[in-house]
Protein backbone atom coordinates (compact mmCIF):
# COMPACT_ATOMS: atom_id res chain seq x y z
CA UNK A 1 0.00 0.00 0.00
CA UNK A 2 2.73 2.42 1.12
CA UNK A 3 4.86 1.53 -1.89
CA UNK A 4 2.03 2.24 -4.28
CA UNK A 5 1.46 5.55 -2.61
CA UNK A 6 5.14 6.46 -2.89
CA UNK A 7 5.18 5.40 -6.52
CA UNK A 8 2.16 7.61 -7.16
CA UNK A 9 3.91 10.64 -5.67
CA UNK A 10 7.08 9.93 -7.63
CA UNK A 11 5.10 9.76 -10.86
CA UNK A 12 3.37 13.05 -10.13
CA UNK A 13 6.70 14.74 -9.34
CA UNK A 14 8.31 13.31 -12.47
CA UNK A 15 5.41 14.47 -14.62
CA UNK A 16 5.55 17.94 -13.04
CA UNK A 17 9.29 18.24 -13.69
CA UNK A 18 8.90 16.92 -17.23
CA UNK A 19 6.01 19.35 -17.72
CA UNK A 20 8.13 22.28 -16.55
CA UNK A 21 10.88 21.34 -18.94
CA UNK A 22 8.42 21.02 -21.81
CA UNK A 23 6.97 24.44 -21.00
CA UNK A 24 10.44 25.89 -20.49
CA UNK A 25 12.09 24.39 -23.55
CA UNK A 26 13.05 26.86 -26.28
CA UNK A 27 15.03 25.98 -29.39
CA UNK A 28 18.48 27.41 -29.85
CA UNK A 29 18.78 29.77 -32.83
CA UNK A 30 21.55 28.95 -35.32
CA UNK A 31 24.76 30.96 -34.88
CA UNK A 32 25.80 33.39 -37.60
CA UNK A 33 29.15 34.83 -38.62
CA UNK A 34 29.47 38.28 -37.03
CA UNK A 35 28.55 41.00 -39.56
CA UNK A 36 31.63 42.54 -41.19
CA UNK A 37 32.67 45.95 -39.84
CA UNK A 38 30.94 48.70 -41.79
CA UNK A 39 28.37 46.33 -43.32
CA UNK A 40 25.50 47.74 -41.27
CA UNK A 41 23.48 50.66 -42.65
CA UNK A 42 24.85 53.82 -40.96
CA UNK A 43 21.41 55.40 -40.56
CA UNK A 44 20.19 52.35 -38.63
CA UNK A 45 23.32 52.41 -36.48
CA UNK A 46 22.75 56.11 -35.74
CA UNK A 47 19.11 55.55 -34.78
CA UNK A 48 20.12 52.55 -32.66
CA UNK A 49 22.61 54.70 -30.73
CA UNK A 50 19.77 57.01 -29.66
CA UNK A 51 17.58 54.04 -28.70
CA UNK A 52 20.40 52.50 -26.67
CA UNK A 53 20.44 55.77 -24.73
CA UNK A 54 16.68 55.60 -24.22
CA UNK A 55 17.09 52.08 -22.77
CA UNK A 56 20.25 52.84 -20.68
CA UNK A 57 21.83 49.69 -22.16
CA UNK A 58 25.31 51.00 -21.35
CA UNK A 59 24.46 51.83 -17.74
CA UNK A 60 23.57 48.21 -16.95
CA UNK A 61 25.92 46.51 -19.39
CA UNK A 62 29.13 48.24 -18.32
CA UNK A 63 31.06 47.23 -15.19
CA UNK A 64 32.70 50.01 -13.19
CA UNK A 65 35.90 50.82 -15.06
CA UNK A 66 35.09 48.18 -17.72
CA UNK A 67 34.63 48.46 -21.49
CA UNK A 68 31.29 49.86 -22.63
CA UNK A 69 28.65 47.14 -23.26
CA UNK A 70 31.04 44.35 -22.17
CA UNK A 71 28.81 43.42 -19.21
CA UNK A 72 29.77 42.30 -15.71
CA UNK A 73 27.81 45.02 -13.90
CA UNK A 74 26.50 43.51 -10.64
CA UNK A 75 22.80 43.92 -9.89
CA UNK A 76 21.84 43.17 -6.31
CA UNK A 77 18.35 41.62 -6.32
CA UNK A 78 16.33 40.08 -3.50
CA UNK A 79 17.42 36.71 -4.93
CA UNK A 80 21.17 37.29 -5.13
CA UNK A 81 23.54 39.20 -7.40
CA UNK A 82 22.96 38.91 -11.14
CA UNK A 83 25.58 40.19 -13.57
CA UNK A 84 24.74 41.76 -16.88
CA UNK A 85 26.20 40.01 -19.91
CA UNK A 86 28.56 41.05 -22.69
CA UNK A 87 26.48 42.55 -25.53
CA UNK A 88 29.40 43.60 -27.72
CA UNK A 89 29.69 41.62 -30.99
CA UNK A 90 32.52 39.45 -29.66
CA UNK A 91 31.83 36.01 -31.26
CA UNK A 92 32.84 33.96 -28.20
CA UNK A 93 31.88 35.94 -25.10
CA UNK A 94 29.42 38.49 -26.57
CA UNK A 95 26.51 38.41 -29.01
CA UNK A 96 28.61 38.34 -32.20
CA UNK A 97 27.01 35.06 -33.29
CA UNK A 98 23.46 36.21 -32.59
CA UNK A 99 21.19 36.77 -35.59
CA UNK A 100 18.72 39.63 -35.50
CA UNK A 101 16.00 37.03 -34.82
CA UNK A 102 17.90 35.78 -31.76
CA UNK A 103 18.33 39.34 -30.49
CA UNK A 104 14.65 40.14 -31.01
CA UNK A 105 13.63 36.98 -29.17
CA UNK A 106 15.85 37.93 -26.21
CA UNK A 107 14.37 41.43 -26.05
CA UNK A 108 10.77 40.28 -26.41
CA UNK A 109 10.76 36.97 -24.52
CA UNK A 110 13.88 36.97 -22.35
CA UNK A 111 15.39 33.91 -24.04
CA UNK A 112 19.09 33.75 -24.98
CA UNK A 113 20.30 32.48 -28.37
CA UNK A 114 21.02 29.04 -26.93
CA UNK A 115 17.40 28.73 -25.73
CA UNK A 116 18.03 29.37 -22.02
CA UNK A 117 15.78 31.72 -20.07
CA UNK A 118 17.10 35.08 -18.92
CA UNK A 119 16.39 36.59 -15.52
CA UNK A 120 14.00 39.54 -15.39
CA UNK A 121 16.79 41.71 -13.90
CA UNK A 122 17.08 42.28 -17.67
CA UNK A 123 13.92 44.35 -18.24
CA UNK A 124 12.57 42.30 -21.16
CA UNK A 125 9.11 42.67 -19.61
CA UNK A 126 9.37 46.27 -20.89
CA UNK A 127 11.47 45.70 -24.02
CA UNK A 128 8.77 43.33 -25.28
CA UNK A 129 6.77 46.48 -26.12
CA UNK A 130 9.38 47.86 -28.55
CA UNK A 131 8.63 47.88 -32.29
CA UNK A 132 10.43 45.65 -34.84
CA UNK A 133 11.95 48.71 -36.48
CA UNK A 134 13.45 49.98 -33.19
CA UNK A 135 14.75 46.53 -32.20
CA UNK A 136 16.37 46.18 -35.65
CA UNK A 137 18.07 49.56 -35.25
CA UNK A 138 19.32 48.62 -31.77
CA UNK A 139 20.72 45.39 -33.16
CA UNK A 140 22.53 47.27 -35.94
CA UNK A 141 24.00 49.64 -33.37
CA UNK A 142 25.23 46.92 -31.00
CA UNK A 143 26.70 44.82 -33.82
CA UNK A 144 28.68 47.86 -34.99
CA UNK A 145 30.36 48.39 -31.61
CA UNK A 146 33.96 47.23 -31.05
CA UNK A 147 33.96 43.56 -29.96
CA UNK A 148 35.36 43.03 -26.46
CA UNK A 149 36.31 39.62 -25.06
CA UNK A 150 34.81 39.51 -21.55
CA UNK A 151 33.64 36.18 -20.13
CA UNK A 152 30.47 36.14 -17.99
CA UNK A 153 30.77 36.67 -14.24
CA UNK A 154 29.39 34.20 -11.73
CA UNK A 155 25.96 35.03 -10.31
CA UNK A 156 25.12 34.32 -6.66
CA UNK A 157 21.49 33.25 -7.08
CA UNK A 158 21.04 30.18 -4.83
CA UNK A 159 19.71 26.77 -5.91
CA UNK A 160 16.93 26.14 -6.99
CA UNK A 161 16.21 29.76 -8.02
CA UNK A 162 19.25 29.65 -10.29
CA UNK A 163 17.50 27.06 -12.50
CA UNK A 164 16.77 29.12 -15.58
CA UNK A 165 13.89 26.81 -16.57
CA UNK A 166 11.95 28.16 -13.57
CA UNK A 167 11.84 31.55 -15.28
CA UNK A 168 9.37 30.00 -17.74
CA UNK A 169 6.87 29.81 -14.87
CA UNK A 170 7.57 33.44 -13.93
CA UNK A 171 6.93 34.49 -17.51
CA UNK A 172 3.67 32.53 -17.72
CA UNK A 173 2.46 34.48 -14.71
CA UNK A 174 3.87 37.94 -15.33
CA UNK A 175 5.17 38.51 -18.86
CA UNK A 176 2.62 40.24 -21.10
CA UNK A 177 4.09 40.07 -24.56
CA UNK A 178 3.07 42.40 -27.35
CA UNK A 179 4.23 45.64 -28.95
CA UNK A 180 2.93 48.88 -27.38
CA UNK A 181 -0.48 49.81 -28.72
CA UNK A 182 -1.17 53.53 -29.05
CA UNK A 183 -4.36 54.90 -27.52
CA UNK A 184 -6.19 56.71 -30.35
CA UNK A 185 -8.00 58.91 -27.83
CA UNK A 186 -4.69 60.46 -26.71
CA UNK A 187 -2.35 62.91 -28.40
CA UNK A 188 0.62 61.81 -30.46
CA UNK A 189 2.99 63.20 -27.82
CA UNK A 190 1.24 61.28 -25.01
CA UNK A 191 1.48 58.06 -27.01
CA UNK A 192 5.14 58.64 -27.83
CA UNK A 193 5.85 59.30 -24.15
CA UNK A 194 3.94 56.19 -23.09
CA UNK A 195 5.76 54.09 -25.71
CA UNK A 196 9.16 55.19 -24.39
CA UNK A 197 8.21 55.00 -20.71
CA UNK A 198 6.54 51.58 -20.81
CA UNK A 199 9.01 50.16 -23.30
CA UNK A 200 12.68 51.06 -23.82
CA UNK A 201 12.99 53.55 -20.96
CA UNK A 202 11.28 51.18 -18.48
CA UNK A 203 10.57 53.91 -15.91
CA UNK A 204 8.42 51.43 -13.98
CA UNK A 205 11.37 49.08 -13.43
CA UNK A 206 12.47 51.49 -10.68
CA UNK A 207 9.33 53.48 -9.87
CA UNK A 208 6.81 50.60 -9.62
CA UNK A 209 6.82 48.38 -6.51
CA UNK A 210 7.44 44.65 -7.04
CA UNK A 211 5.72 41.58 -5.62
CA UNK A 212 7.39 38.79 -3.64
CA UNK A 213 8.83 37.17 -6.78
CA UNK A 214 10.17 40.38 -8.26
CA UNK A 215 7.44 41.23 -10.79
CA UNK A 216 6.12 44.78 -11.05
CA UNK A 217 2.69 45.17 -9.47
CA UNK A 218 0.56 46.34 -12.36
CA UNK A 219 -2.15 47.63 -10.05
CA UNK A 220 0.40 49.96 -8.42
CA UNK A 221 2.06 51.36 -11.55
CA UNK A 222 4.54 54.16 -10.69
CA UNK A 223 3.52 54.10 -7.02
CA UNK A 224 7.17 54.40 -5.91
CA UNK A 225 9.68 51.72 -4.91
CA UNK A 226 13.07 51.08 -3.35
CA UNK A 227 15.93 50.53 -5.75
CA UNK A 228 19.70 50.23 -5.11
CA UNK A 229 19.34 51.71 -1.64
CA UNK A 230 17.39 54.76 -2.89
CA UNK A 231 13.73 55.56 -2.96
CA UNK A 232 12.39 56.05 -6.48
CA UNK A 233 9.48 58.33 -5.50
CA UNK A 234 5.93 57.80 -6.71
CA UNK A 235 5.25 59.46 -10.06
CA UNK A 236 1.51 59.43 -9.38
CA UNK A 237 -0.64 61.89 -7.42
CA UNK A 238 0.96 60.31 -4.31
CA UNK A 239 4.25 62.09 -5.11
CA UNK A 240 5.35 63.94 -1.96
CA UNK A 241 6.68 67.11 -3.66
CA UNK A 242 4.66 70.15 -2.52
CA UNK A 243 4.58 71.53 -6.08
CA UNK A 244 2.89 69.05 -8.46
CA UNK A 245 5.09 67.80 -11.31
CA UNK A 246 3.80 69.82 -14.27
CA UNK A 247 4.77 69.05 -17.85
CA UNK A 248 7.33 71.89 -17.88
CA UNK A 249 8.88 70.82 -14.58
CA UNK A 250 9.19 67.23 -15.81
CA UNK A 251 10.71 68.43 -19.05
CA UNK A 252 13.32 70.51 -17.24
CA UNK A 253 14.16 67.66 -14.84
CA UNK A 254 14.41 64.93 -17.48
CA UNK A 255 16.31 67.15 -19.91
CA UNK A 256 18.76 68.89 -17.57
CA UNK A 257 18.70 66.88 -14.33
CA UNK A 258 17.14 69.67 -12.27
CA UNK A 259 13.82 71.46 -11.80
CA UNK A 260 13.97 74.74 -9.88
CA UNK A 261 10.70 73.93 -8.10
CA UNK A 262 11.65 70.32 -7.19
CA UNK A 263 15.39 69.85 -6.95
CA UNK A 264 17.82 67.63 -8.79
CA UNK A 265 18.22 64.04 -9.97
CA UNK A 266 20.64 62.13 -7.75
CA UNK A 267 21.56 58.44 -7.48
CA UNK A 268 20.54 56.19 -10.36
CA UNK A 269 18.16 58.88 -11.63
CA UNK A 270 21.19 61.01 -12.46
CA UNK A 271 22.47 58.20 -14.70
CA UNK A 272 19.04 57.85 -16.29
CA UNK A 273 19.13 61.54 -17.23
CA UNK A 274 22.79 62.07 -18.09
CA UNK A 275 23.87 58.66 -19.42
CA UNK A 276 20.59 57.70 -21.12
CA UNK A 277 17.89 60.24 -21.86
CA UNK A 278 20.53 62.80 -22.87
CA UNK A 279 20.74 61.01 -26.27
CA UNK A 280 17.06 61.60 -27.00
CA UNK A 281 15.84 64.62 -29.00
CA UNK A 282 13.89 67.36 -27.18
CA UNK A 283 10.61 66.13 -28.71
CA UNK A 284 10.99 62.74 -27.00
CA UNK A 285 11.73 64.33 -23.61
CA UNK A 286 8.69 66.56 -24.10
CA UNK A 287 6.64 63.44 -24.88
CA UNK A 288 7.79 61.77 -21.64
CA UNK A 289 6.86 64.95 -19.77
CA UNK A 290 3.39 65.01 -21.36
CA UNK A 291 2.84 61.39 -20.36
CA UNK A 292 4.00 61.73 -16.75
CA UNK A 293 2.21 65.03 -16.20
CA UNK A 294 -0.89 62.97 -16.95
CA UNK A 295 0.19 60.04 -14.73
CA UNK A 296 0.77 62.46 -11.83
CA UNK A 297 -2.51 64.29 -12.38
CA UNK A 298 -0.54 67.56 -12.17
CA UNK A 299 -3.16 69.68 -13.93
CA UNK A 300 -5.80 68.90 -11.31
CA UNK A 301 -3.45 70.01 -8.53
CA UNK A 302 -1.78 72.96 -10.28
CA UNK A 303 -3.54 75.51 -8.07
CA UNK A 304 -1.41 74.40 -5.12
CA UNK A 305 1.87 75.42 -6.75
CA UNK A 306 2.02 79.13 -5.92
CA UNK A 307 1.10 78.68 -2.26
CA UNK A 308 3.70 75.92 -1.91
CA UNK A 309 6.43 78.14 -3.34
CA UNK A 310 5.47 81.08 -1.10
CA UNK A 311 5.50 78.83 1.99
CA UNK A 312 8.84 77.31 1.00
CA UNK A 313 10.49 80.70 0.54
CA UNK A 314 9.16 81.86 3.89
CA UNK A 315 10.74 78.80 5.55
CA UNK A 316 13.95 79.39 3.62
CA UNK A 317 14.66 82.58 5.51
CA UNK A 318 13.63 81.16 8.84
CA UNK A 319 16.20 81.64 11.60
CA UNK A 320 16.95 78.72 13.91
CA UNK A 321 14.13 78.47 16.40
CA UNK A 322 16.41 78.37 19.40
CA UNK A 323 20.10 78.07 20.08
CA UNK A 324 19.46 74.89 22.04
CA UNK A 325 18.23 73.10 18.90
CA UNK A 326 21.26 71.19 17.62
CA UNK A 327 19.63 70.53 14.24
CA UNK A 328 18.87 74.20 13.65
CA UNK A 329 22.39 75.23 14.65
CA UNK A 330 23.91 72.66 12.34
CA UNK A 331 21.68 73.74 9.49
CA UNK A 332 22.72 77.36 9.91
CA UNK A 333 26.40 76.48 10.09
CA UNK A 334 26.61 73.80 7.39
CA UNK A 335 23.76 74.24 4.93
CA UNK A 336 22.03 77.62 4.99
CA UNK A 337 24.68 79.52 3.03
CA UNK A 338 23.93 77.41 -0.07
CA UNK A 339 20.28 76.53 0.47
CA UNK A 340 18.92 79.96 1.27
CA UNK A 341 16.72 81.57 -1.40
CA UNK A 342 15.86 85.24 -1.15
CA UNK A 343 14.66 85.84 -4.70
CA UNK A 344 10.96 85.74 -5.65
CA UNK A 345 11.55 82.28 -7.14
CA UNK A 346 13.98 79.59 -5.95
CA UNK A 347 17.12 79.07 -8.00
CA UNK A 348 17.86 75.65 -9.50
CA UNK A 349 21.48 75.86 -8.32
CA UNK A 350 20.42 76.14 -4.65
CA UNK A 351 17.58 73.64 -4.23
CA UNK A 352 14.90 74.93 -1.88
CA UNK A 353 14.75 72.13 0.66
CA UNK A 354 11.09 72.72 1.53
CA UNK A 355 10.24 71.79 -2.07
CA UNK A 356 12.22 68.57 -2.53
CA UNK A 357 10.54 65.15 -2.38
CA UNK A 358 13.34 63.85 -0.18
CA UNK A 359 12.03 65.96 2.69
CA UNK A 360 8.34 65.28 2.12
CA UNK A 361 8.67 61.52 1.69
CA UNK A 362 7.86 59.22 4.59
CA UNK A 363 11.12 57.45 3.83
CA UNK A 364 14.12 59.64 4.82
CA UNK A 365 16.57 57.54 2.76
CA UNK A 366 17.09 59.96 -0.12
CA UNK A 367 17.73 62.92 2.20
CA UNK A 368 20.23 60.89 4.23
CA UNK A 369 22.02 59.59 1.15
CA UNK A 370 22.33 63.00 -0.47
CA UNK A 371 23.71 64.54 2.73
CA UNK A 372 26.15 61.66 3.33
CA UNK A 373 27.37 61.35 -0.25
CA UNK A 374 26.77 64.77 -1.76
CA UNK A 375 25.95 65.20 -5.44
CA UNK A 376 28.98 65.27 -7.78
CA UNK A 377 29.67 68.02 -10.31
CA UNK A 378 28.62 65.71 -13.17
CA UNK A 379 25.49 64.48 -11.40
CA UNK A 380 22.18 66.22 -10.75
CA UNK A 381 22.55 69.73 -12.14
CA UNK A 382 25.87 69.61 -14.03
CA UNK A 383 28.47 72.11 -12.92
CA UNK A 384 27.39 72.55 -9.30
CA UNK A 385 28.43 70.54 -6.29
CA UNK A 386 26.62 69.45 -3.15
CA UNK A 387 29.47 68.55 -0.77
CA UNK A 388 29.31 65.22 1.17
CA UNK A 389 28.79 65.42 4.94
CA UNK A 390 29.73 61.85 5.88
CA UNK A 391 32.03 63.23 8.60
CA UNK A 392 29.02 64.35 10.67
CA UNK A 393 27.96 61.87 13.36
CA UNK A 394 24.69 59.92 13.26
CA UNK A 395 23.20 61.93 16.15
CA UNK A 396 24.02 65.27 14.47
CA UNK A 397 22.61 64.14 11.14
CA UNK A 398 19.47 62.86 12.86
CA UNK A 399 18.97 66.22 14.59
CA UNK A 400 19.48 68.02 11.27
CA UNK A 401 17.03 65.80 9.39
CA UNK A 402 14.44 66.10 12.16
CA UNK A 403 14.81 69.89 12.16
CA UNK A 404 14.30 70.13 8.38
CA UNK A 405 11.31 67.82 8.47
CA UNK A 406 9.73 69.79 11.32
CA UNK A 407 10.27 73.28 9.91
CA UNK A 408 9.86 72.67 6.18
CA UNK A 409 7.03 70.14 5.88
CA UNK A 410 3.70 69.49 7.58
CA UNK A 411 4.39 65.76 7.81
CA UNK A 412 4.86 63.71 10.98
CA UNK A 413 8.42 63.29 12.31
CA UNK A 414 10.54 60.45 10.94
CA UNK A 415 10.82 57.63 13.49
CA UNK A 416 14.17 56.02 14.49
CA UNK A 417 16.29 58.44 12.47
CA UNK A 418 19.61 57.57 14.07
CA UNK A 419 19.21 53.85 13.38
CA UNK A 420 18.12 54.63 9.84
CA UNK A 421 21.17 56.83 9.25
CA UNK A 422 23.48 54.09 10.55
CA UNK A 423 21.80 51.61 8.20
CA UNK A 424 22.13 53.88 5.15
CA UNK A 425 25.78 54.54 6.05
CA UNK A 426 26.49 50.79 6.19
CA UNK A 427 24.77 50.28 2.87
CA UNK A 428 26.68 53.05 1.08
CA UNK A 429 29.99 51.93 2.57
CA UNK A 430 29.36 48.50 1.03
CA UNK A 431 28.81 49.75 -2.51
C1 LIG B 1 18.43 47.18 -15.55
C2 LIG B 1 19.64 46.64 -16.14
C3 LIG B 1 19.63 46.34 -17.63
C4 LIG B 1 19.34 47.20 -18.65
C5 LIG B 1 18.89 48.65 -18.54
C6 LIG B 1 19.59 46.48 -19.86
N1 LIG B 1 19.99 45.21 -19.60
FE1 LIG B 1 20.41 43.78 -20.94
N2 LIG B 1 20.68 42.42 -19.44
C7 LIG B 1 20.71 42.74 -18.10
C8 LIG B 1 21.06 41.55 -17.34
C9 LIG B 1 21.22 41.46 -15.83
C10 LIG B 1 21.23 40.51 -18.27
C11 LIG B 1 21.58 39.06 -17.98
C12 LIG B 1 20.37 38.29 -17.55
C13 LIG B 1 20.68 36.85 -17.23
O1 LIG B 1 21.84 36.48 -17.08
O2 LIG B 1 19.73 36.06 -17.15
C14 LIG B 1 20.97 41.10 -19.59
C15 LIG B 1 21.00 40.40 -20.78
C16 LIG B 1 20.85 40.97 -22.03
C17 LIG B 1 20.89 40.23 -23.26
C18 LIG B 1 21.13 38.73 -23.39
C19 LIG B 1 22.59 38.53 -23.63
C20 LIG B 1 23.12 37.14 -23.39
O3 LIG B 1 24.31 36.96 -23.58
O4 LIG B 1 22.38 36.26 -22.96
C21 LIG B 1 20.72 41.13 -24.28
C22 LIG B 1 20.71 40.85 -25.77
C23 LIG B 1 20.57 42.43 -23.67
N3 LIG B 1 20.64 42.29 -22.31
C24 LIG B 1 20.40 43.60 -24.38
C25 LIG B 1 20.12 44.83 -23.78
C26 LIG B 1 19.83 46.03 -24.54
C27 LIG B 1 19.84 46.16 -26.04
C28 LIG B 1 19.55 47.01 -23.61
C29 LIG B 1 19.14 48.44 -23.85
C30 LIG B 1 17.99 48.63 -24.70
C31 LIG B 1 19.67 46.39 -22.30
N4 LIG B 1 20.03 45.07 -22.45
C32 LIG B 1 19.43 47.06 -21.12
C33 LIG B 1 20.43 43.96 -17.54
C34 LIG B 1 20.04 45.09 -18.24
C1 LIG C 1 28.49 74.49 -1.00
C2 LIG C 1 27.08 74.62 -1.12
C3 LIG C 1 26.20 73.61 -0.39
C4 LIG C 1 26.20 73.27 0.94
C5 LIG C 1 27.13 73.78 2.02
C6 LIG C 1 25.12 72.34 1.11
N1 LIG C 1 24.50 72.10 -0.08
FE1 LIG C 1 22.96 70.84 -0.39
N2 LIG C 1 23.09 71.18 -2.39
C7 LIG C 1 23.90 72.12 -2.98
C8 LIG C 1 23.72 72.09 -4.41
C9 LIG C 1 24.43 72.97 -5.42
C10 LIG C 1 22.77 71.09 -4.67
C11 LIG C 1 22.29 70.62 -6.03
C12 LIG C 1 23.37 69.70 -6.58
C13 LIG C 1 23.15 69.23 -7.97
O1 LIG C 1 22.05 69.28 -8.47
O2 LIG C 1 24.13 68.78 -8.60
C14 LIG C 1 22.39 70.55 -3.37
C15 LIG C 1 21.46 69.54 -3.17
C16 LIG C 1 20.96 69.16 -1.94
C17 LIG C 1 19.88 68.24 -1.74
C18 LIG C 1 19.13 67.50 -2.82
C19 LIG C 1 17.91 68.22 -3.15
C20 LIG C 1 17.11 67.44 -4.16
O3 LIG C 1 17.03 67.92 -5.24
O4 LIG C 1 16.59 66.37 -3.86
C21 LIG C 1 19.68 68.14 -0.39
C22 LIG C 1 18.65 67.28 0.31
C23 LIG C 1 20.65 68.98 0.23
N3 LIG C 1 21.41 69.58 -0.73
C24 LIG C 1 20.75 69.15 1.60
C25 LIG C 1 21.79 69.83 2.22
C26 LIG C 1 22.03 69.84 3.63
C27 LIG C 1 21.13 69.18 4.66
C28 LIG C 1 23.17 70.55 3.83
C29 LIG C 1 23.87 70.82 5.14
C30 LIG C 1 24.35 69.63 5.84
C31 LIG C 1 23.64 71.00 2.53
N4 LIG C 1 22.79 70.54 1.58
C32 LIG C 1 24.77 71.77 2.33
C33 LIG C 1 24.79 72.95 -2.35
C34 LIG C 1 25.13 72.86 -1.02
C1 LIG D 1 17.42 52.91 -12.43
C2 LIG D 1 16.26 53.33 -11.70
C3 LIG D 1 15.39 54.44 -12.29
C4 LIG D 1 14.85 54.51 -13.53
C5 LIG D 1 15.01 53.54 -14.69
C6 LIG D 1 14.06 55.71 -13.57
N1 LIG D 1 14.14 56.35 -12.37
FE1 LIG D 1 13.28 58.14 -11.90
N2 LIG D 1 14.18 58.09 -10.08
C7 LIG D 1 14.95 57.07 -9.58
C8 LIG D 1 15.44 57.44 -8.26
C9 LIG D 1 16.33 56.60 -7.38
C10 LIG D 1 14.94 58.74 -8.00
C11 LIG D 1 15.22 59.62 -6.78
C12 LIG D 1 16.36 60.56 -7.13
C13 LIG D 1 16.60 61.69 -6.20
O1 LIG D 1 16.02 61.75 -5.12
O2 LIG D 1 17.38 62.58 -6.56
C14 LIG D 1 14.14 59.10 -9.16
C15 LIG D 1 13.48 60.31 -9.29
C16 LIG D 1 12.64 60.65 -10.33
C17 LIG D 1 11.84 61.85 -10.39
C18 LIG D 1 11.79 62.92 -9.32
C19 LIG D 1 10.70 62.58 -8.36
C20 LIG D 1 10.66 63.49 -7.20
O3 LIG D 1 9.56 63.66 -6.66
O4 LIG D 1 11.70 64.04 -6.80
C21 LIG D 1 11.17 61.82 -11.58
C22 LIG D 1 10.20 62.87 -12.08
C23 LIG D 1 11.54 60.61 -12.25
N3 LIG D 1 12.43 59.91 -11.47
C24 LIG D 1 11.05 60.23 -13.48
C25 LIG D 1 11.50 59.10 -14.17
C26 LIG D 1 11.10 58.79 -15.53
C27 LIG D 1 10.15 59.60 -16.36
C28 LIG D 1 11.77 57.66 -15.87
C29 LIG D 1 11.77 56.95 -17.21
C30 LIG D 1 12.11 57.80 -18.35
C31 LIG D 1 12.56 57.26 -14.71
N4 LIG D 1 12.37 58.15 -13.71
C32 LIG D 1 13.37 56.14 -14.69
C33 LIG D 1 15.26 55.88 -10.22
C34 LIG D 1 14.94 55.60 -11.55
Spell out the key features of this protein.
20 helices, mainly alpha, binds heme C, 431 residues, two-stranded antiparallel sheet
How would you sum up this structure, described in words?
By secondary structure, the protein is mainly α. The protein folds into 2 domains: 20-152 and 160-174; 220-430, no CATH class. The protein is 45% helix and 4% strand. The chain is built from 20 helices and 6 strands. Helix 18 (365-373) packs across helix 20 (417-430) and helix 19 (394-408) packs across helix 20. The mean pLDDT is 94. The chain binds heme C (3 copies). One heme C is lined by residues 258, 263-264, 334-335, 337-339, 349, 351, 353, 356, 358, 367, 370-371, 375, 379-381, 384, 386-387, 389, 400. The site of one heme C has 25 residues, from strand 6, helix 16 and helix 18.
Give the mean pLDDT. 94
How far the N terminus sits from the C terminus, by CA atoms, comes to 58 Å
- In total, the number of domains comes to 2
What is the H/E order? HHHEEHHHHHHEEHEEHHHHHHHHHH
Topology readout:
Layout lengths: L1 H23 L17 H13 L2 H5 L12 E4 L2 E4 L16 H10 L14 H4 L4 H12 L22 H9 L13 H11 L5 H4 L17 E3 L2 E3 L14 H10 L1 E2 L3 E2 L2 H10 L5 H14 L2 H4 L3 H12 L9 H9 L1 H4 L17 H4 L4 H9 L20 H15 L8 H14 L1
Antiparallel strand pairs: 1-2, 3-4, 5-6
Quick overview:
With 431 residues, the chain is mainly alpha-helical. It contains 20 helices and 6 strands. The structure holds heme C (3 copies).
